[in-house]
Amino acid sequence: MTTAQPVILVDGEPSACIPADDRGFLYGDGVFRTLRIVAGKPRWWPEQIAKLSEDASRIGLTAPDPAVWCADLERFSAQLTDGVLKLILTRGSGPRGYLPSAAQPVRRLMVFDATPNSGQRTADLRVRICTLRLGWQPRLAGIKHLNRLENVLARSEWSAADIHEGLMLDHAERVICGVMSNLFIWQRNRLLTPRLDQCGVAGVARGRLLRLASEQGLDVEETDLNMQAVFDADEVMLTNSVMGLRRVARLESKNWPDPLISSRLVEWLDA
Amino acid sequence: MTTAQPVILVDGEPSACIPADDRGFLYGDGVFRTLRIVAGKPRWWPEQIAKLSEDASRIGLTAPDPAVWCADLERFSAQLTDGVLKLILTRGSGPRGYLPSAAQPVRRLMVFDATPNSGQRTADLRVRICTLRLGWQPRLAGIKHLNRLENVLARSEWSAADIHEGLMLDHAERVICGVMSNLFIWQRNRLLTPRLDQCGVAGVARGRLLRLASEQGLDVEETDLNMQAVFDADEVMLTNSVMGLRRVARLESKNWPDPLISSRLVEWLDA
C-alpha cells in the first residue's frame, strides 16, 4: 500500500473510531501488542498472540481465540507489506463505573500502519537516562496494558531526534527497561536483563532472546541491575518487537564503539 | 430526559465515538472529572473545572478555557436534569509512539448520564478492605488521570451489592482512599484524611471539605493513617463528587451505629 494512513479493524470490521464508553478509553482497561510486518508476514506471531492472551488473563479478560486474530489478519492481507501492526484488546463497553460486567464482550482492534519507522533499523542507539522513576505494581508488572502514562511522561523528557531511547529506573534505583524497549547487558560472558516482578513490560523479543540464548548455551540471568552495572557492561543492548535487538553505542557520555555479542544475538533473534 | 442513554459531545459536537488513534485510548493519556447534575446544575462547577485544568497541566496538557466547557454545557442544557456528568480531556490524536506532538490539539468529551445511581444517596455505607495495594508514583499522585487499572482490579474484588466501597492501602500499608472515594476519619475531635503525595486521587469533594472544615474551626490534618487508626476512629466517612459525603456504618465486621460529626460535614459540603 502507498498511503501512510493506518488501516483499522474494530471487531473485524473497518472503522476509524471506537465507542466513547469503551473501557479501554475510560480506564485504560485493556492490553495491546505492537509488532512488525515484514514482507506481508507478522513477525513472531504465535508468541505475540500467546503473550496478548496471557496479559489479558492477568487482568481478568478472556482473549479471543487465535483463529479470530488470524481471520482479522486475512482481511488485511492484500494491504500488508512492511510496517507496524498493533493489536488492542479492551474490556469493551459496559455500565458506568469501575466494576466490570461479566456479561460485556471484549472489544478487539487491529491497526496496520505502513509509515516507515525512524528508519535507522541497523543504526546503533544513542540512549539517555530518564528522570521519572517507575512505580511498583506487581499485579500489573510485565503486562503490556493500556495504562502507559509513565511511558508518555518519560518519553516527554527529551525531543532531540538523535537520542533514540531513554532508560527507566524504579524508585529503588534499579534499572528496569527503556521507555519502549527491554534492556540486556553483556558482562563477563553473561547475558543479564532486569527482573520485571514489580514494574516494566516483559516484551516478546525479550522472552525470545532469553529462551534462544539459553538454548545456545549462554549464561543468562534475570536479575537486579543498577546504573553502575550498565555503565560497566561490556555491551549494552535494547530489544522490542518492532526493532528487534539493537546495541547501544552511547549512553549519556559513555561510548561502546564495537559490537561484541550483539550481532550473534540479532542472528538468533531474527532466524 | 427519559432515556437512559448517555448524551455525548466530542469537541462540542454530538458523537458516540472517538478516533481509534486518540491517545486517551492508546495510553490513558488524559484526565477526567465525574460530577453530579442536580436540578440541571453541575455541582461545584468552578472547582471541577479548576481541578481538571490543574490535573491536565501536571501531565503537560493545556486545558480549554473554562468558557469552552461552559459552552458545551449550554448545548446540553435542555437535556440536563439530574444525573452524572463526565468531562474527559485527552492529548488527542497524533503520530504513533509515546512522544506527544507539540502541535496536536487536545480532545474534550462531555458525557451526560441520567441513569440513577445505586440510589442509596442517604444510606450509610458498608465497606470492605481491598487486597490490591496501590503503587507509588509521585508524578501522578492526586491526579484523576485515565490510567485506572488499579481501581478496576480493586473494584473487581467484590460483587456483593450490599458492599458499597473498598478501602485501598499502599504497599507500605498506609490507607489511601476508597476505590472511588476519599477517606476521612473523625478521631478525638480531629478530622484526618490520608496524604496523597505518592498515590490516590485528590477529589474535589475532599478539597472542599478540607477547606470548609478548617474555615469552621475544626482541627484538620492530612496525614499517614494505618488500618488500626481507621478501626479506632470515632467516625469514618467517604467523599466523592457524585455522592458527596457519606458515613461508614460498617467496615468489615466493625460497626459505627451512630453519626457524630458527619451530618454537620454534609451540611457544610452541600451548602
Observed structural traits:
homodimer, 271 residues, alpha+beta, D-amino Acid Aminotransferase, Chain A, domain 1, D-amino Acid Aminotransferase, Chain A, domain 2, 2 domains, 9-stranded mixed β-sheet, 6-stranded antiparallel β-sheet, 23% helix
Explain this structure to me?
The structure is a homodimer of 271-residue chains. Chain A folds into two domains: 7-113, Aminotransferase class 4, branched-chain amino acid transferase, N-terminal domain (D-amino Acid Aminotransferase, Chain A, domain 1), CATH 3.30.470; 125-270, D-amino Acid Aminotransferase, subunit A, domain 2 (D-amino Acid Aminotransferase, Chain A, domain 2, Alpha-Beta Barrel). Chain A contains seven helices and 16 strands. In chain A, strands 8, 9, 10, 11, 12, 13, 14, 15 and 16 form a nine-stranded mixed beta sheet that branches. In chain A, strands 2-1-7-6-4-5 form a six-stranded antiparallel beta sheet. Chain A has helices at residues 23-27, 45-58, 66-76, 149-155, 204-215, 227-231, 262-270, and strands spanning 7-10, 13-14, 17-19, 30-38, 41-42, 83-90, 107-113, 125-134, 165-170, 175-178, 182-187, 190-194, 219-223, 235-240, 244-251, 254-255. The first copy, chain A, is globular, with a radius of gyration of 19 Å. The mean pLDDT of chain A is 94. The first copy, chain A, is an alpha+beta fold. Chains A and B meet through β3, α1, β7 and α4 of A and β3, α1, β7 and α4 of B. β3 of chain A pairs antiparallel with β3 of chain B, so a sheet runs across the interface.
